[in-house]
TrEMBL record:
The keyword Phosphoprotein applies. This is Serine/threonine-protein kinase RIO3. InterPro entries: Kinase-like_dom_sf (IPR011009), RIO-type_Ser/Thr_kinase (IPR051272), RIO_dom (IPR018934), RIO_kinase (IPR000687), RIO_kinase_CS (IPR018935), Ser/Thr_kinase_Rio3 (IPR017406). It catalyses: L-seryl-[protein] + ATP = O-phospho-L-seryl-[protein] + ADP + H(+); L-threonyl-[protein] + ATP = O-phospho-L-threonyl-[protein] + ADP + H(+). PANTHER family: SERINE/THREONINE-PROTEIN KINASE RIO1 (PTHR45723). Residues 1-22, 123-160 are annotated as: Disordered. Its EC number is 2.7.11.1. Interacts with CASP10. Interacts with IRF3; RIOK3 probably mediates the interaction of TBK1 with IRF3. Associated with 40S pre-ribosomal particles. Its cofactor is Mg(2+). Keywords: Antiviral defense, ATP-binding, Cytoplasm, Immunity, Innate immunity, Kinase, Magnesium, Metal-binding, Nucleotide-binding, Phosphoprotein, Ribosome biogenesis, Serine/threonine-protein kinase, Transferase. Residues 1-17 have a biased composition (Low complexity).
Length: 515
């Protein structure tokens, strides 16, 4: 608090009390007030708001002014709130001091000591609030129109005396109580969940804060002790996510690693019980963990950066969130494929960068990739026609191009081909969508021509068969040029008219080239 203010003369002319305290006479009315509460809220409300918006639970994420503490409704008159805010500020100052000391001691010595463990606000804590946003909770496909939200803009539901606002104390209280279920399994919440308890937002927020910091503390403590093989492949945050899945009963056990790729690690797990009755967890699951080491993803930027479904969000996101978008993208794409009846893994759950899906294979043995099986001539032909069909379905019904289709991403299981690995799949109108499709066609054609399927179309024929476009060039170079010209035309159209050409879109009929 500013000592000058406290010492101010009590009789300094007319105006509001705070104005009259100013020792330099009456300030103009636009000057800023300076009570403790105001200083605190100015400094921290923004941070708190950000933190809360990110950390708050699903429905709150969607509605910016949820029942949680935000910049607007922050209650600085509450002692508890003020105390917490002060504490936070003190902790930060303490840390800053520690850092200075650390620097002083270390100087430019080659061997340095660290005060990391003495810090109050751990970097692991401070940056993890953004992690609380969970794509599971924004399950809608960003491509499709949004469903109306449950609490309308006006902020209330119902009529007359039955009106219920989103701030309704009883409703909020019950919701808050139910939300305690989301706390870590080891966090003791008593029998509250089963009773008709109504927790105020303030109490709930305090509890939640505590639950989270306990959770993180415990994760930190155990970080160095766990060393099982499955766990070694992933970072502590991911481990915590997996641990929670097992703890929640969704997974029975995680048995081990099936694949370690550049961009992902895939685990096998036995499915557990579902929390809701309408959803069945497959007996065996595959867990795809998208790697959070960023450099691996750099060369794949173009797939997601230019995907207009994600365009708005891309620019605002940090790299960790972008990686989550890969997982989210794979989920949406798999869901579309599932709807079209294309054999592919079924989505079970998505938590941040961890996607759980059904396991293609049996008894922990994953189905072989097409490149690893030797099929009879008959099966080879069968597989070819099935893939031709799937590519058309993918394009026409799912409005997708796989974009990494090859014998590496097709599994042979139960006498048919299953498509996997669709995180990079894009819509045909993606600025490079048609080029990706052409590459897919080249891979497929070459594989089956080499594999002795006489009926296999060449890559250009296959491209036309899948897209319904009628590109006539009879050599690779010209064909490619025509594809790029089409893409460019589409982009120009987007620039000028704000929407895509209808030529690649598919409403059942073969697309017509109309401009
Ligand atoms: P990457 O981007 O690392 O290629 P993939 O999705 O292709 O990721 O998965 C890597 C490997 O893991 C696959 O080649 C396959 O062998 C295995 N795999 C992935 N998903 C499944 C699944 N649902 N069922 C069985 N095996 C799977
Ligand atoms: Mn793959």
């Amino acid at each position: 608090m500013d000592p000058v203010e406290v010492a101010a003369a009590p009789d300094a002319g007319p105006g509001p009390a705070w104005q009259s305290k100013c020792p330099w006479g009456a300030p103009n009315t636009t000057s800023i007030s300076c009570s403790l509460a105001d200083v605190m809220s100015e400094q921290l409300a923004k941070e708190l708001q950000l933190e809360e918006e990110n950390a708050a639970f699903p429905e709150v994420v969607a509605v910016a002014e949820g029942p949680f503490i935000t910049g607007e409704n922050i209650d600085t008159s509450s002692d508890l709130m003020l105390a917490q805010m002060l504490q936070m500020e003190f902790d930060r100052e303490y840390d800053a001091q520690l850092r200075r000391e650390e620097k002083k001691i270390n100087g430019d010595s080659k061997v340095s000591i660290s005060f990391e463990n003495y810090r109050k606000v751990h970097p692991y804590d401070s940056d993890s609030s953004e992690d609380e946003v969970d794509w599971q909770d924004t399950r809608h496909d960003p491509y499709r129109a949004d469903k109306p939200t449950t609490t309308p803009r006006k902020g209330f539901i119902g009529k007359g005396k039955d009106i219920t606002t989103k701030h309704d104390e009883v409703v909020c209280g019950r919701k808050n109580t139910a939300r305690m279920e989301n706390f870590a399994p080891e966090f003791q919440v008593g029998d509250g969940i089963g009773m008709d308890l109504k927790l105020s937002n303030q109490v709930f927020n305090a509890l939640k804060q505590h639950a989270y910091s306990e959770e993180r503390r415990s994760a930190r403590l155990h970080e160095k002790k766990e060393h099982s093989t499955a766990e070694k492949a992933v970072d502590p945050k991911t481990r915590l996510l997996l641990y929670k899945m097992v703890n929640a009963g969704m997974l029975e056990t995680i048995t081990g690693c099936i694949s370690t790729g550049k961009e992902s690690v895939v685990f096998h797990a036995y499915g557990g019980k579902s929390a809701t009755e309408d959803k069945v967890i497959p007996p065996e699951c595959a867990i795809k963990v998208f790697k959070t080491t960023l450099n691996e993803f750099k060369n794949r930027d173009k797939y997601i950066k230019d995907d207009y479904r994600f365009k708005d969000r891309f620019s605002k996101l940090n790299p960790r969130k972008i990686i989550r978008m890969w997982a989210e993208k794979e989920m949406h794409n798999l869901t579309r494929m599932q709807t079209a009846g294309i054999p592919c893994p079924q989505v079970v759950s998505l938590k941040k960068h961890v996607l759980v899906m059904s396991f293609i294979g049996k008894d922990q043995v994953p189905a072989p990739k097409l490149k690893d099986v030797t099929l009879s001539g008959e099966d080879m032909k069968k597989a070819y026609y099935q893939i031709l069909n799937m590519m058309q379905q993918l394009y026409k019904e799912c409005n997708l191009v796989h974009a990494d289709l090859s014998e590496y991403n097709m599994l042979w299981h139960d006498g048919k081909v299953w498509l996997i690995d669709v995180s990079q799949s894009v819509e045909p109108t993606h600025p490079h969508g048609l080029e990706f499709l052409f590459r897919d066609c080249r891979n497929v054609s070459q594989f089956f021509q080499k594999g002795g399927v006489a009926e296999a179309l060449n890559e250009r024929e296959l491209f036309n068969a899948v897209s319904g476009l009628n590109i006539t060039a009879d050599n690779e170079v010209d064909f490619q040029a025509e594809i790029e010209a089409l893409e460019k035309m589409n982009e120009d159209h987007v620039q000028n008219h704000g929407k895509k050409l209808s030529m690649f879109s598919s409403d059942g009929d073969p697309p017509i080239y109309d401009e």
